[in-house]
Design a protein that fits this description.
This protein is mainly α. The chain is 72% helix and 0% strand. It is a multi-pass membrane protein.
């Protein structure tokens, strides 16, 4: 790996730390309806969070996980979210370094950067939506609905910069198809699928469809495999029953990343088994 690539990966990691710090605010405030613009403060003593106390990961370690004013413990989730976001951004940047060849062989640097930006956005909302759904069993419209515009807008820009328009058409079809599929599931079994899951399905379908039909099928199917395995494991361990509500959003997102990362080789391998 050349020095420029190492520099870009390091830059992506630092950017991920900053975005991860913001995601902590989003995860806490969006479900509660608290404005994102409100200054951060300690929930017990109301002491404001100083700039030096808001450095991702480092501040939590320096403060030993406690409020500087009253000693209230600060959840380990905060540095973990920041570190996880940094790792996700490094992964996306690593993928993007080969993005020129990934976009159907079109040597379009601008298109590659735009697609990378779309994937970085999806990585960020993946972390936020996963934790929010685990916390409150809800996928907020404030995050999901704007994601349609962000994804389609960035992919359209990528096409204007040289990516094939067929990819954008496939993304639109993928989004509509996965949305319709989840909508049918919700209609057949109203309690098994939430409205937020249906809306998120369209966003997931756009991303997977952009990458190809293989990733769309693999990513869509992987959500049910992963969710099913987790549900069975909970029942075997007697931590859940057949009527226990399990948030499905995290598994939709996990399945999406399976499709993004290994959807093409998995689909090709499966087709190879069927057609020698």
């Amino acid at each position: 790996m050349n020095p420029l690539s190492i520099y870009l990966l390091a830059l992506a990691g630092l950017f991920g730390l900053v975005i991860g710090s913001f995601l902590n605010v989003v995860i806490h405030r969006v479900p509660a309806g608290i404005p994102l613009t409100r200054a951060s403060s300690c929930p017990r003593c109301d002491a404001p969070v100083r700039p030096w106390q808001n450095v991702p990961v480092v501040s939590w370690l320096a403060l030993r996980g406690r409020c500087a004013a009253c000693g209230l413990p600060i959840s380990r989730r905060y540095p973990l979210v920041e570190a996880a976001t940094a790792a996700a951004f490094v992964l996306v940047a690593w993928i993007a370094l080969d993005a020129d060849r990934a976009i159907a062989g079109v040597p379009a640097t601008g298109a590659a950067v735009t697609v990378a930006a779309a994937l970085l956005y999806f990585a960020a909302i993946s972390i936020a939506l996963t934790l929010i759904d685990l916390d409150v069993h809800r996928l907020p419209n404030a995050i999901v609905l704007p994601s349609y515009g962000v994804a389609l807008g960035l992919f359209t820009l990528a096409c204007l910069l040289g990516a094939p328009w067929v990819s954008l058409g496939r993304a639109a079809v993928g989004g509509a198809a996965l949305f319709a599929f989840y909508l049918v599931l919700r209609s057949v079994r109203p309690g098994a699928m939430g409205g937020g899951d249906v809306k998120l399905a369209g966003v997931v379908g756009i991303y997977l469809g952009w990458l190809g039909w293989g990733p769309l099928v693999v990513g869509g199917f992987a959500a049910f495999v992963l969710g099913g395995v987790f549900g069975v494991a909970l029942m075997i361990s007697r931590r859940a029953g057949r009527s226990t509500a399990i948030p499905f959003g995290p598994w939709m997102i996990a399945g999406a990343w399976v499709g993004i990362l290994v959807g093409v080789p998995l689909a090709e391998g499966y087709v190879g088994l069927l057609v020698p």
